[in-house]
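>> received
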Amino acid sequence: MSFPARPDTSEVLPPRPQDPAQVGPYRIVGRLGSGGMGIVYAGVDAAGQRSAVKLIHQTHASDREFRDRFRREVAMLRLVRGTCCVRILDADAEAEQPWLATEYIAGRTLDDHVARHGPLTGDDLFGLAAGLAEAVVAVHAAQVVHRDLKASNVMLSPQGPRLVDFGIARSLDGTSLTATGLVVGSPAWVSPEEYAGGPTGSAADVYGWALVVVYAATGRQPYGMARPEVLALRVMNEPVDTSMVPAALRPVIDAALAKAPGARPAMDEVLAAVAGAWRERHGEAGIVTWDPAADVTTRLNRVWSYQGQDMAQWPSQPPAPPRRSKFRRFSPVVATVAALGCTAGVLLNLPSDATAGPARPSATPTAPGVSAPASPSATPAAPRTAAELAAALDLALSVMPAAEFSFDGGFTQSAAGAKASGRLVSGDVPDYDDFEMTVDAEEEDPARYVITGGELYLDRPGAPAMDMSDKRPEDATWYALMVAGMAGPYTVQQVVHNSENFHQAGRTYIGNLPATKTNGPLRSLLASWLGTDVSGATSSSYLSYRLTIDERNRPTKFSLTWKVPLDGGGTYASEFTTSYRGWAEDGEISKPS
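>> returned
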């Protein structure tokens, strides 16, 4: 990719000063990622086996309902025995901070691989289809329905495809790990029967399997990109175009995509059909007595061509203890991992938490059996109220308005997401900041943009100015509005200024505000996504934020989550995160000449 937020080679980040040295039997050698539920560490046991160790945040560990879900999920996942399923190695649901260790999967998710290298072909495509079918058969044999089969929950490793993330799985006896009455999963990957409000059984996974294979063969989202309600209508009423799927696979995929769950084949029938087609491809048809699962795993060992070119580099020896006299600076990188989660959201393949800038001490309590080094010395006094913080930001950005940034986020239940990086300047034009950036959006080629004086330009000589106010999600240039609305310093200041709830922990601040109290590019972005102003469409929606500032009161990291309550309970949560570094006094951004 064209910017460092998505490097060609993954790395394991060094541990931070506040990270534990040990979690259960696992020595912590680095970080793999973090998210709302916890931090995923690179761990090594006494035998030298690598693992992804997820340590649950203390705030969730104190939630009895969360702990019960975690305990049930661990027990359920221990029953899954598929070769192409990620394996759980160990867990402790009773620890003060629960943790879960799974095998470490070196490689990338299917959607990331396709974005970088294009659709799968030949034995790689047949191997993906067959290996994923083997995994789903194993899940069903354990009396579990995965319910969230999609490209981001399938990883490509040197040993073959691996199915990950059982965060919204349901037992076939009806035991659910999520709240009832909700449509769970990502809209473009949800089965028609779930949208219709009917029971969701193993046939939903058959449907999801077919969608993943179509995506792998075409490199396109099966139902395209649109708002959740539009995707729901397409899923329920429109056929999936399978014309680019190899002819040998198309009959079973077309059958698996039937709108009526009763018309779909069982998953073991799918596995037998795909394994048979793969045998015929290699001229081995005609053998009657055979085990499809064993045949698939054997053939994967012979012909699977993914050789771990994206394998992460692990530390060769235990890291040295952090120095107390100064902080270490980390470069932004991405590590793709598999670590099983325990909630209705995506708890696997978490985005990297590699924040450029000094690492911060944490006040999070550690669990028994989790040892942590001493905290560095305290930082100078920080703003204590929302008003003080807003004023401090205004002063700091007037002195040093320019910075480099990286952005990652998107609207949940859709493919409308993007990564971006570049430079920004806190703008002189009211409501607008200036940007010079590369935007890499889902289903779009990376593009460079300039925003200055409130106008948008493609970053090429002679490009005309474009009005940002009329951009819509179906426009490729709309993603520049997404970045400007979520990452701009003006948005940071206005969100803080309009906070209704506010809490400080050192130089990190959390708060929330109704969506109706937003303005500027952020409000324009929400309105463009909804097709109408937030005051009419989702007046009960709100935004929560987490902002970290440095000793000079300049932002280093800003996470903004838009939450839309659902009628049946629960919320849609769309997350956007921006990291800032290298604040400077000047860095003028001009329109393309």
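>> Residues 108-303 form a domain with the Transferase(Phosphotransferase); domain 1 fold (CATH 1.10.510.10).
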